[in-house]
Amino acid sequence: MLIITRRPGEKIMLGDDIVVHVMEIVGNSVRIGIQAPRAVPVYREEIWNAVREENQAAAADAPAELPRPARSDA
Amino acid sequence: MSTVTVESSRFGTLEIEAGAIIEFPAGLIGLGGRRWAVVTKEPNSPFSWLHSLDDPSLALPVTNPWGFFSDYEIELSDADSERVQDDDVAVWVTVRAGVELADFSANLRAPIVISAGQGFQVINEAEHAPVRAALFPEGAKAEVAA
After folding, report:
1. 8 A C-beta contact, residue B37 and residue B54
2. Of residues A68 and B23, which shows the higher confidence score?
3. How far is A9 from B18, CA to CA, in rounded Å?
4. What is the pairing mode between strands A18-26 and A11-14?
5. Element of type H or E holding B65
6. pLDDT computed for residue B82 by the predictor
7. Is the minimum CB–CB distance between A23 and chain B shorter than 8 Å?
8. pLDDT at residue B139 in the model
9. Which of A24, A31, B39, B100 has the most CB atoms within 10 Å of its CB?
10. Which residue among B42, B98, B107 sits closest to A51, beta carbon to beta carbon?
11. Greatest C-alpha distance within chain B
12. Is A34 on the interface with B (CB under 8 A)?
């Protein structure tokens, strides 16, 4: 892992077209701006992780026969 | 129309019409996969399957979120809004099956938005959008499809 120190207002380049902008530090929070090409989705890590887990579980747990709720026939 | 044949490990041979193939430029979150199709096995069931065309063993049950959550709302970031440009949009949410009906849930946080042959799993920024929303709250009746 690359570890570098940046001050508010400074930026980091990931390749030629992704910019990570350290905008401000307030208390124990850092506000970060990210400019990335449309094809590169940007996620908060904990949300990415939760969704990934859910996708994997959905693919793994499902039986071929799913229940049919009674109210859909009403 | 030409079709693509998938030897699905769950459903056997599936013939997918070329026009029904959905291209996911970024895949599903954490699963990847560029080519998928929505497969409906039971016309009266609220559930369909998002089936991978690249991996015959990969399929996720999906449902129309408004069939279960009539007040469901989706709020997209600017970046995601730009990805989904067409007005004619289909929305699905993935379903996690459980042993008991009470364990079945849908992921309202990361809906799958399909328009103009392209699909994106987006992050819903709306406040009330749990990753695991119960599909059959207590008391709901269901029968297993024959």
Report:
1. no
2. B23
3. 49
4. antiparallel
5. helix B65-68
6. 83
7. no
8. 55
9. B39
10. B107
11. 45
12. no
Token pair for A31: 């506000």
B111, with CB counted inside 10 A (0-12, 13-18, 19+), is buried
**Nearest CA-CA distance, residue A39 and chain B, Å:** 7
Cβ distance B123 to A51 less than 8 Å, yes or no, reads: yes
ipTM entry: 0.88
* Res B79: pLDDT: 84
Q: What is the pLDDT of residue A9?
A: 97
CB of B126 less than 8 A from some CB of A: no
Nearest chain A Cα distance for residue B45, angstroms: 6
Report which of residues B41 and B20 the model is more confident about: B20
For residue range B88-133, list pLDDT tens digits in order: 899 999 999 988 888 999 999 999 999 999 999 999 999 999 999 9
Instruction: Give pLDDT, residue A72.
Output: 43
Check CB contact of B136 with chain A, cutoff 8 Å. Answer: yes
